[in-house]
Amino acid sequence: MKLSTTTAIYRDRPEGKGKIPVIECVRRLHQAGYRDVDINFNLMSKMDLELSKPDWQDWARELGEVLGELGMTALQCHVPFYNVLEPDSIPNAEYTEEIIRRAVAAAGNAGIRTAVFHGGSYEGTCDPERNLKGNLEYFKPYAELAGKYGVSVAIENLPGTKRAGGDKDTCTSCPEQLLELCGRLRKEYGNVGVCWDFGHGNLTGCDQARVIEELGDYLLAVHVSDNYGIGDDHNLPYQGNIPWKQVMQALGKAGYQGAFAYETHKLTAAMPEEMVDETLRYTYRLGTYLMSLAE
Ligand SMILES: [Mn+2]
């Protein structure tokens, strides 16, 4: 297991989102002590950022070179996301899909082995079979494309609403259904697995230590943040009610070898520049402590 954090932890500044180039974020995180980063490609379909530019392939190679020079890895990345079964829910789904394909290629060119995706669910229904079928069809071409670049597709659990009294536990929020989806995809594509997001899992209200055990070798990536089971706050661990000791012991027992990657970008997004480096260093120390619980 290797401690990591999202490039988004520094990229969004009080003066706006996506302000700091990804490569600069990587350098800054290296200075704070990190030796692995989770490359966040998300805003790149909405703003004029690295993957929207004509030289995006050169940029991806440069990113790989910078990681190499710094002695860093990027074990996982996050591709742009939306409700992929409801393309009309965003103004530019076709363009977003193009940026997702570029993100997969960029991952391959920069040496990133796992790309994290969100699935979708049909609006207004909770029909597990229909959602399963829709997600299967959506992910097949991506499993194939990613395979050509030596990249794995990790499908993330999204937040359900059971804990808040709702019933919206869909294909990608419920661990059993997520495993069913990945299991069916694996029959054809060996490079498919799960990204388990602990914040989303807490909102869904499941026993996350048990889920880690059940996921077995499907677990390819994790997103680390905390909340109180009400909103997706993306807080640091211990700023919520996730039982981190049990979670870390489960990761240790499972022999998880991927990135232990924070997704706590809200921590620094509104923070004055003067306080950022010290905060990033604290997150590193906290992560080192958490990982010691897994041993
Ligand atoms: Mn996540």
Could you give a quick summary of the protein structure above?
The protein has 295 residues and is α/β, with parallel strands linked by helices. It has helices spanning 8-11, 22-31, 56-69, 93-110, 128-148, 175-186, 198-204, 208-215, 244-254, 266-269, 273-292, and strands at 2-6, 36-40, 73-78, 114-117, 152-156, 192-197, 219-224, 259-262. Helix 3 runs parallel beside helix 4, helix 5 crosses helix 6 and helix 8 packs parallel to helix 9.
Describe what this molecule looks like in 3D.
This protein is of the alpha/beta class and 295 residues long. It contains 11 helices and 8 strands. It has one domain: TIM Barrel (Alpha-Beta Barrel), CATH 3.20.20. It has helices at 8-11, 22-31, 56-69, 93-110, 128-148, 175-186, 198-204, 208-215, 244-254, 266-269, 273-292; strands spanning 2-6, 36-40, 73-78, 114-117, 152-156, 192-197, 219-224, 259-262. Strands 1-2-3-4-5-6-7-8 form an 8-stranded parallel barrel, surrounded by 6 helices. α5 (128-148) crosses α6 and α8 (208-215) runs parallel beside α9. The structure holds manganese (II) ion. Manganese (II) ion (MN) binds next to loops.
